[in-house]
Amino acid sequence: MATVLYDYWRSSASYRVRIALNMLGEEHEIVPVDLLTQEQRSHAHLQRNPQGLVPVLAIDGRTLTQSLAIIEYLDETRAAGFLPADAAGRARVRALAHAIAMEIHPICNLRVATHAASLVGGGEEAVTAWMHTFIGEGLRAFEVMLSDGDAGDFCHGDSPGLADFCLVPQLYNARRWQVDLSELHRIFRIETNCARIAAFEAAHPDRVRPGTLGGS
């Protein structure tokens, strides 16, 4: 049965899953779900995911939602090595991944930031200030978390995994909002190492954007 990723090209959660699938060499079809036209609220998509979110992965006769759950499923069913073998290492990697996916990402979702700004009568400048505050604070904390001695070429040791799959898309978002990253030296080194890997490059939003070469 074909593997299908229901995806929005600029969604950082979808970006994480694209990296993981590419790292595995798992052949898959990308079906775009246009968030700008509210396609995620369509009856067809709500049948896939009642939350009306992306990504959704159809694989192994199952329909999976939530990017971290999807990546852990891939890890467990394909022996991918996306998490360390030891319990302490897995806890560390999950903490790093959650710091982005459960702390920075939810409050910096554009829908959330725009609504928060509207409550105080703010416009685009207020949204930008919100993003600078919460993305900046979150990534500065992530930088400190990497200083515990267990990072190597990547967030944990010398091979990319779950935490890296979360970090790279968050940096893409940070640059979209022109967040100052100049002091994040550990993060920048890891990002540079990830950028050398074809699986990360092929997952980049510019490579999968509908209407572009390689995009759906």
From TrEMBL:
Top-rank EC class of the record's enzyme: isomerase
In terms of NCBIfam families, this protein maps to:
maiA
- Which protein family is it in? Belongs to the GST superfamily. Zeta family.
Instruction: Supply the source organism for this entry.
Output: Chelativorans intermedius
- The question of whether Iron-sulfur is a record keyword is answered with no
Q: What is this protein called?
A: Maleylacetoacetate isomerase
Query: EC number(s) on record?
Result: 5.2.1.2
GST N-terminal domain span: 1-82
PANTHER family membership: GLUTATHIONE S-TRANSFERASE YFCF, MALEYLACETOACETATE ISOMERASE
Molecular function per GO: maleylacetoacetate isomerase activity
Q: Where is the GST C-terminal domain?
A: 86-214
Q: Does the keyword Iron-sulfur apply?
A: no
| Keywords annotated in UniProt | Isomerase
